Amino acid sequence: MSLDAEDPVTMALRVGVVVVSLGSVVLGVRVAVSRRFPEAWVRLARLKPGERSQPVRVGIAQAMIGAGLLIQQAPFFVSMPLPLGRALFAVSLLLLLTAAGAFSLLGRWLRMMMCRAR
């Protein structure tokens, strides 16, 4: 796969995914290292003091989601053999599933999703 074979719209979407995933990695690492949610997150989600106790898990999960998306886009920007591209795709899926598992461990997240379903 090469950059010349794609139309400009697809290429722009891929670059957008890379930029968003890099931002997600940076923000997730910041939350995990500082052990605090950004104030905008706290206000937007209306987190109570007891619900702010798991920023490390949320930050790590967000960083893994960003890394998974970034790894998934790598074969489209760098020439590589097909087996290596498939291996990167498998690693990407593993990261995304691990991040989903980390999010599912959050009781607040599960309660929030169940309340929205009603």
Automatic annotation (TrEMBL):
The keyword Transmembrane helix applies. The chain crosses the membrane at residues 12-33, 54-75, 87-110. Keywords: Membrane, Transmembrane, Transmembrane helix. This is Uncharacterized protein. It comes from Micromonospora acroterricola. The lineage of its organism: Bacteria, Bacillati, Actinomycetota, Actinomycetes, Micromonosporales.
